[in-house]
Amino acid sequence: MERGVIELYLAFLALEAAVELVLNELNLRHYRAKRGKEEWKALEYALVRGRFARAAILWDTGTRLLDAFLLLPVLGAAARALAPFLPMPYAESVLFCLGYALLRHVDEVPLDLYDTFSIEQRFGFNRTTPGAYALDGLKSAALAAAFGVPTLLCAFLLIDRAGPRWWLWAFALSMAFHFLLMHVSPAFIEPLFNRFEPLADGELRERALALAGKVGFPGREIQVKDASRRTGHSNAYFTGVGRAKRIVFYDTLLAELTVEQSVGVLAHELGHWKLRHVEESMALWALVSFIDLYLMSLALRFEPLCGAFGLAPSPHAAMVAYWIVAPQLFFWRGPLTNIMRRRQEREADRFARAAAGGGAELAGALDAVADHNLGAPGAHPWHHAYYSSHPTFRERLAVFEEG
Questions:
Q1: Which of 35, 118, 169, 177 is most deeply packed, by most CB within 10 A?
Q2: What is the Cα–Cα distance from 27 to 21, expressed in whole angstroms?
Q3: Rounded Cα gap, residues 383 and 375, in angstroms
Q4: What's the pLDDT at 179?
């Protein structure tokens, strides 16, 4: 049975890597064929990112194998050795789970460093210093520990005390925690990494508040994020729930758009709120979490899963083993979720066109943002269908130019 688990895991790991490598190579060939027909810098950026993606896929596959079959038993021994020095219940279980999460993070650091300080630096986007990068990493690690330790303690307590239906209680607690985080994150967590200031008085603020009032948006906060401290990329987003609702503009975005174009971007973000896309995405997240916790409850009773990775049966060993196999068994969730996201983006674009009173400025904003961010000049259709959370540039322009 353990051999069957290993074979199934390796088959899905190979399938995911093969699918992503094939799509990446198709996309690279697609871009190479455009040489001489599109803007060179945007095309070169897309090609460089495609070559990086190829290396990242191979790196990720290799590190997953290394972690699962070589480092996991070492991690288990380390957790057992350190547990007596940690004065809390379930110390070994917590150390083992956090250790695996740290291991996966360490695997990703070399890729992130190269991406940030080589690719993004080369194309003029990176504004992060090594010191700021390290400080952000320490803050993220502290937050992960602050939230991760209580979460794991609750999980193992429920496994011990709540019986076979522990996962239902865990689901209820995870939902409550998620809602709490959505309330507190804008005010307490995000400011740990960036400064946020209210949109300055002037024509843009007046028109933005008028538009928010027109569509019935209950929040009055429109903030500007100092994204330029770390990146030259530009964006805007909607965050928070209840009284924490707010629209956030990158300062880099406002620097490149006219007032009309900025209002159009705001209309798009308000469209996500008005059309209840946040609630829709949360409902999907809840469904996936519900299924994952149920499957994890089955994994805790399936002893060959632990043995396949050289671990003695235990709740924490089964939990980590499930974390190892689940991303590969369900890698197809991402492309399916992107179908919903692209539909949401099209709906928000149509809402913005109606709310902002025309599509010309919206099209101009999209063009300006794509130009500033060196947006890819049209990916291969299969690559786009698999990876993209937004419609293509031409599809979005068609929405703004309707009628």
A1: 169
A2: 10
A3: 15
A4: 84
